[in-house]
Amino acid sequence: MHILRFFILTFALAVTAPAFSQTDSLSAVPDSASATRGARVRATPVRKDTTIVPENQTQKTKSKVVKDSARLALEAMPGRAAWGSAMLPGLGQIRNGRWWKVPFIYAGLVSVGLAFEFNNRYYRDILKELQYRELHNQETRDPDYTPYDRSSLISAKDFYRRNRDLSILGFLGVHAINVIDAYVDAKFFRYDITDKLGFNVQPTLMPPLSFASVTPVPAIKFTISL
Predict the structure, then answer these.
(1) pLDDT of 44 above 60
(2) Terminal-to-terminal C-alpha distance of the chain
(3) Helix or strand or coil: residue 200?
(4) CA–centroid distance for 46 within its chain
(5) What is this structure's pTM?
């Protein structure tokens, strides 16, 4: 009987001993959730973008262009010359120091004005002649127009009226050329446009050819500097 109890106790101890010797598996395994939270707390430091420059620093680094009074006066010359010639023909040329152009400008304006007066005078005279013939049963008002019939007078009237209108366009064209010339001349005031840099004409002697006469031939030499 005692031997049976001894074997039962020995068997019970052999079965329960491994259970007490095992460690807690749940306490041995690290908590992944807590590890993740710890990793989130220790965030990576943010690197600053060195390419972005503060606004106040960029304003300091910008170079300011300062124009002196002489440069401002040169830049204002074309506009002043153009406005001067627009208000009074030739005024811009005088401001540019090209006073010798003024007689040519007024010669063109006077020529166009005389052409306007001539064509307008004959246009009105012929028109009155046609109106008089319509009212007085083809009677002639001016004896100078007696040889001309009605169709010839109408053609002459249209001719002088067209030339009169063209004279108005010519006046506007000469005035526009006057303004453009003053503006361009003032624009190129700082550039050297002497004869040495442009077109040159001078007399010369052509060398004789082998099959021609022996004496040199006089000629005119045109030179363009590029």
Answers:
(1) no
(2) 138
(3) strand
(4) 48
(5) 0.53
